[in-house]
Amino acid sequence: MFRSALLAGVAGLTLAACGGAAGTSISQVPDTDARKAAVATEIATMMTDPAMMDQMFAPEAMAGAMPDLSAMCAAIPADQQAACTQRMEGSSATLQSVQTEMMDKAKAMQPQLMQDMGAIMARTYTGEELAAMHAFYKSPEGQAILQKQPQVMAEFMPAVMARMQPLQLEMVQKLSQRMTAAAAAATAPAMAATTAPGSAVPQAAPLPPGTTVTTTVTPPAATPAPATAAPAFPRPN
Questions:
Q1: In this structure, how many other beta carbons lie within 10 angstroms of the beta carbon of residue 39?
Q2: What are the pLDDT digits (tens) for 146-177?
């Protein structure tokens, strides 16, 4: 969620405006760790939208975290898809029940979360800063800023995403180009070594001791001698 950005923005506006906040006096400055924690927890509660948990578990917010049930059924054999779809449709009530249960648990955690945030603020800010922040958020101006800040962030975040998407695309393209170039550079020396003139011919590995090598020699086929005519002798009279 973008709640952290919202809190950071509100805190920045608060510190900028606290210098002129009315109603802040030295008697209001928390002077003990326990008092600082209490004031900081109250400030954290004022800074936090009560509907935050509802927004976190809203259907549109949960859509990205939940598995695509239709895609799960599409990935199984065709003869089983109908039964899968029927089971998934029947599980929607179970999904809604679990979602509601988790939302209730998250809402129950909110007071403890505010105490956790208050403890961090108490360690970070001085007593004077906490007193000024508290006075500002109690003022009409501070209340108006808290009410309007979600609207500011709702309009601001789409603008951020519109500027970031081209940058993300450029990052992916550059990463692909540089990885391709690095892979080509790594394989180039090996390719050059195997094709360069005068490169050494790989030698066969020596045989281990005791290895017997048998060589079979096949003699060439015998060539028949050429036929010669018998000598002719004169017949006696």
A1: 22
A2: 889 888 988 998 898 888 888 888 888 888 88
- Residue 76's identity, in one-letter code, is I
| C-alpha separations of 35 from 5, 28, 32, 143 in Å | 27, 10, 5, 23
Of 6, 20, 48, 23, the residue nearest 152 (C-alpha)? 6
The enclosing H or E element of 190 equals helix 140-195
The C-alpha atoms of residue 170 and residue 164 are separated, in whole angstroms, by 10
Q: Please name the amino acid found at residue 201.
A: V
The answer on pLDDT for 223 being more than 60 is: no
Residue bearing tokens 């400030």: 43
Which pLDDT band holds residue 93 (cuts at 50, 70, 90)?
confident
Would you kindly state where each structural domain of the chain is located, as residue ranges?
3-182
Global pTM reads 0.49
Q: What is the mean pLDDT of residues 98-105?
A: 82
Q: What is the DSSP string of the chain?
A: --HHHHHHHHHHHHHHHGGG-TT--GGGS--SHHHHHHHHHHHHHHHS-TTHHHHHTSHHHHTTTS--HHHHHHTS-HHHHHHHHHHHHHTHHHHHHHHHHHHHHHHHHHHHHHHHHHHHHHHHS-HHHHHHHHHHHHSHHHHHHHHHHHHHHHHHHHHHHHHHHHHHHHHHHHHHHHHHHHHHHHHHHHHHHHHSTTPPPPPPPPPPTT--------PPPPPPPPP-PPPP-PPP-
The dihedral sign for the CA sequence 97, 99, 105, 107: negative
